[in-house]
Amino acid sequence: MTIPDVREHTTEKNWIGKSIPRLEDRRFLLGKGGYIDDLVLPNMLEVALVRSIYPHARIVSIDTSEAEALPGVAAVVTGAQAAEMTDPLPDFGPDPENHPWRCLAVDKVRYNGEGVVAIAAESRAIAEDAAELVVIEYEPLEPIVDPMAAKEDGSPLVHETLGTNIAFHREFTFGEVDADFEGADRIISDTLHWGRSGGQPIETVGAVADYDDASGMMSIHANSLSFTSYLFMLAGTLRVPSNKLDMHPVSAGGSFGSKLWEVKTPTIAGMLSRLCGRPVKFLQDRMENISNGDHHGSDRRYEVDLAVMNDGTLRSIKITTVEDYGAYIQFGVGHHGNALAQVTGPYKMSSVYYDVTAVLTNKCQQGAYRGFGSEVGNWVLERMVDLAAAELEMDPAEIRRRNFLEPDQFPYFIPTGNVYDSGDYGGVLDKALELADYAGWRQRQTEARAEGRNVGIGICTCQERSVFSATEFWFWFDEPGAPVSSMPESVTLDVDALGNITATLYSCAMWGNSPETMVAQLVGEEFDVDPQTVNVVYASSNQGLPATGPGGSRFTVMVAGAVEVASAKIKKKGAAIAAHLLEANVEDLTWVNGGFEVAGTPTARMELADIAIQAHLFKHGLPEEIESGLEASHVYDHPYTTMPNDDRTDLGVFYPFMGHACHIAVVEVDPDTGKVDFLDYAAVHDCGTMVNPRSLCGHIVGGTAQGIGTSLLEEFVYDDDGVLQTPSFAEYVIPTSMDVPELKIGHQETPSPYTPHGIKGGGEAGRMMAPAAISAAIDDALRDHGVRVRRLPATPERIVDWIDGGG
Amino acid sequence: MKAPPFGYRRVSSAAEAADALRELGSDARILAGGQSLLPMLSVRIASPSHLVDIGRADDLRHITADNGSLRIGAAATQWSVENDQATTAAAPLLADAISRAGQVPIRHRGTVVGSIAHADPSAEIPAAVLASGATLIAASTGSEREISADDFFQGPYMTALEEGELLREVRIDRWPDGTGHAFEEFSHSHESWPVVTAAVLVLLNGGTIDRVAIAMSGVDGRPVRAGQAEHELTGQAPTPELLAEAAQSATRDLEPFSDVFGSGRYRKRVATALVRRALTTATTRAGGGA
Ligand SMILES: Cc1cc2nc3c(=O)[nH]c(=O)nc-3n(C[C@H](O)[C@H](O)[C@H](O)COP(=O)(O)OP(=O)(O)OC[C@H]3O[C@@H](n4cnc5c(N)ncnc54)[C@H](O)[C@@H]3O)c2cc1C
Predict the structure, then answer these.
(1) Among the four A3, A221, A265, B11, which has the fewest Cβ within 10 Å?
(2) pTM of the model
């Protein structure tokens, strides 16, 4: 595909751009959201796991006899027994056959918290009682905790069959890196470390499986799976025919990525349902979610060199990163693919070197978390730009402005081959400086410092790539197993006899975002109906069309495309009916305010409802070729992707709709305790045309809160022996509403030329930016102490250590 | 996270509670607000045979101030105590400490006495109780004894209570009018568990410190008094330098534990800062100029 046609966007919109109340809110606020734990099927069993107390140990023996004898217990299944009933879990990583990932550990455990035995019982309480009766003899093995040691020869191995703990290593060179470095005035270098945190949904991952041995149908209600085109892989794991697996999407109380491809929970529930012949619910408790949820976020160490000119011009960047993936690597290094989508940020830079090593250790594996690894890239780039500004004694806003791509340079291909569709970065920066009262804060900062207060201001200008292509899951392989290239989203619109519209969605779309509101506003725009009257339902996968769901800020853009085409199909049929009944030529009809009318004769008109009732009930009044009913489906493919080249010096277009934001944080640091308090916070976002500014603000606020957690508080801590020190919310501290400042939010709209209405994704929002702004603000506050934030989270104790001279 | 099986008995008086403890033996536990006990059951680090629920014992719900002494019964919730005028007048330090202990919904169930009996080494309420020189009343069938706060806290989750004893009441003698108080806490988020706290009472007399009490939590296996620092301050005029020195000596001999919330070294540093701040605030409130 070459560059798609540029679309004309009208600015006259009825519903897009309005902050209508969310359609989802009412049922959730009434307690009728229908979460997994609300779902109770007759005769249902519940599951508890016995999880490993060791980070790394051989399983010598398992005695389940006492547990089996406990009244109320239906089944006790060890990992070895589970391996008789299921195949390994689907895994998109390198060499899955050499590090097989199973629903329960077989032979050895590879992290503290890994499931070893599953128990199905009449209640979760009984299952937990039985779990205490399972006797497991372990032979502890040396824990592999530090990824830098783990990648060395001679380290004990997480997976013996792999023969190394390095699951993946590759260097990428994009553009003339050496020449750009040679021609640079300065090389700015640093070492950075982004710590491990993760999404924290209110309801954890859960599934209710109901296997029917009469029909052979495996029905699973789950809050965790989307990607309907890939569900055949789960069917394979469960050893049911792909057309006999039916996933019913259930609303999730948040995902933030952490439920993206959580297959383990549905697998365990499905396996036990089939074994017991009864419905089975498995809902992780909090400790399971944290220790065994397969969705920890990035954990990266970096060596970075930035080539700059003395006037502040950025030329090139060399990034060498070692990532601690934990015990498995289900998505491969897709997280780095994500970072490569926007590796040069909003800046003109002509080359990039990227060296990634993925290491396996005895920790819970990574999955997805809001940003999918690109948020880490943003932080690293902004940290380096700040360091350059400091060394060149430039204002952090100025160095950024000097390097911004200009609005007339789009579409712009960055060195990795990805395209940025549109942008106006200077416009966003101006708005943010004004919104934050940057000049005023610099003044107040001077006053505060005179009083001995450690007040600092941090600025970042970051990209938010949106709408990924399937290629990012494999382009880092030389020989990918399957170079897939589809990631569609689908919708069915059905206009009933009275003209009321139902939209059917096909992915597990409700993850705390606003898919129903988005679809209803889009449908409202197409048909001039009040979005609140649109009924939005979710189809199960077996009755479904291919769909990908939320992730990589793609849902709204993609479903907008599906709605656009499905609406056009309906309107085409509607126009044919109206033309026939109005005795007019179809070409003379125009859609005006909810109906078709004959151009120039507004009295000759049919409303959608008039057309609909004819379409449903009056076959003999219609032209012969028109079938009854008024519905249409559309499978919408990604509007702009291209394939990578063979040697991967060009990754192709894989994340083209490029949002942007500027965050400005003002903090005060208490040098005695290292505690960081916010004095002010401003965020200006540009994600193209906004569908609903209010729900977008929700993303910005929530994402920024998560960014604050990532920056200051949240970390999955494994001690030197590999024991998880943060197994619950008592130890894993997330910011509360009292810790998050009131945000000043501003918007800019630079429409995408390639998407319906010019929409870009905005779902990952603040978490992509806040860490960079906060780190810079801390540096600025503690500049007299020579502090530079090189590691996140910047916990109070780390900050006082840095003040004390630790670095 | 489901509790293991246990027996449950609801009692309607302190005497019934003591009898139940005697009858049910050493594996029975008092259930007060349940805000520590129920989570411990859920993660199965406690598995008592019976819970003796004192939540509806009418003679344990009292909050009274008489003869200069505040008495709080074992079933009085933290919320009711911190919002009680007698408490805020007689023991404002305790009221401040309670207001930092967990969230409002938790304090609507959690009891003051339960927090004392639980004896978490970082908790707020035990620190305030210790600084206040409180007396704990332990009751068993047919008898009662008084335990001073200094003797009550013995280690992490360990107290001077003996088998069969119910902690019936805490008594706090009111400090003279004009006493300044201050409670300082460091926690990672607004509502997360306390890491270090400092509780201070200061009484001035003609510009010098007449009486002072300093207690800290999160720096040892139990809340500790800073006797040496109190001694150094008594009789002195409170200058900023003096208070800073006192804060140093308050923590000098401590060797705090390390955990995921903070290393021992960090705890010591924070404790020193919090004691200095609490001394400064309390002295100012007492009418001193420091
Ligand atoms: C989300 C959350 C946040 C929290 N945050 C904090 C915090 O910031 N700071 C803090 O200090 N605490 C905190 N807590 C703990 C809470 O405040 C408890 O209420 C308190 O520690 C115990 O009081 P309780 O009445 O709930 O006691 P329970 O939980 O009922 O009992 C605790 C223990 O004390 C024993 N016990 C209770 N009463 C008596 C008695 N009269 N005689 C003998 N033994 C008795 C019980 O047998 C049990 O072993 C938090 C709890 C939660 C759930």
Answers:
(1) A3
(2) 0.97
